[in-house]
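Collaborator request, handled under Task 6.
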Amino acid sequence: MDADETSSLISSSSASGPGDVEAVQDGTKRDVSTHDSYEVDIRGWTLLTKLEFYQMWLLLGMLTGIGLMTINNVGNDAQALWTHYDDSISQGMIQQRQLMHVSLLSFISFIGRLLSGIGSDLIVKNLGRSRFWCLFISSAVFCAAQICGLRIENPNLLGFLSSLSGLAYGFLFGVFPSLVAEGFGVTGLSQNWGFMTLSPVLFGNIFNLVYGRVYDHHSFIDPNGRRQCLEGLKCYQSAYWVTFAASVACICISLWAIQHDGVKKAKARRRLEADEDREA
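C-alpha cells returned to the collaborator:
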C-alpha cells in the first residue's frame, strides 16, 4: 500500500484521541484537562479504592432504578389513571394506550442516547466542561419526570412522564460508558462496565419493590382474578415521592462529582507544569 493510503490509519503525535483525550508521545506537552484513558488502567479490586467508582456506581444504580420503575410500571400507571378517569373505557383501549407508552419510551430513549453521545463531546471539546454534566442533565430530567408522575391525573397527559423518563434513561446510558473509560481506562473497560452494571440490578429491584408495595396497598383482586385499583393517581403516587427524593439526591451527587473531577484535573495540571519547569 502507498504511504498516502496508510497515513489515515496511523495516529500522529498531534492527533486527538476519542472524546476529550489527546494522544501524545513522551516529552510532548499535552492537555491535562482530563485523564488519558489509554494510560490509565484501573480494574478489579483496585476499583474499590477509588472514590470515583462509588460516585459512578451510585449514580448509575439510582438513575437506572428510577427509570426502570417507570419503564416497568407505566402500563399500571395508564391502567390506574384510565380506569379512574373514564369508567366506560374498554380494556382493549387501555391496552392500546399501554403499548403507546412503551413505544414512546423506547423511541425517546433512542433519541436520548444520540443526544448524549453528541452532547457530551460538545460539552468537553467546545465548552471545556466535565462530562459529568451529562449526568447532571439526566438527573434533572429524571427529577422533572418524577414531578409528572406525582402530579398528572389526566391519562391523556401521561405521555410527558413516558417521554421524560425515556429521554433521561437514554441520556444516561449514552454517556456512561465514556465516563467509565475516561475514569478507569479503556483497557479494562468491559470488566469495569460489568462491575458498574451490578448497581442497576440492586436499585432497579428496590424501586420496583417500592412501587409494587404501594400499588398493592391501594388495589384489590376482582372476581376475574385481575388486580384492580380505582383510586387513580393515589394508586402509585407514594412510589414517585421515593424516586423524586432519589433524583434530587442524584442531582447533588452529580454536582459533587463535577466538583471533584475539576479538583482532580487541576491537581494533574499543576503536577505537569511542575514537571515541565524541572525539565526546563
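The cover message to the collaborator said: "Confidence is low (pLDDT under 50) at residues 2-35. The beta strands are 220-221, 227-228. Please let us know whether this matches your experimental observations."
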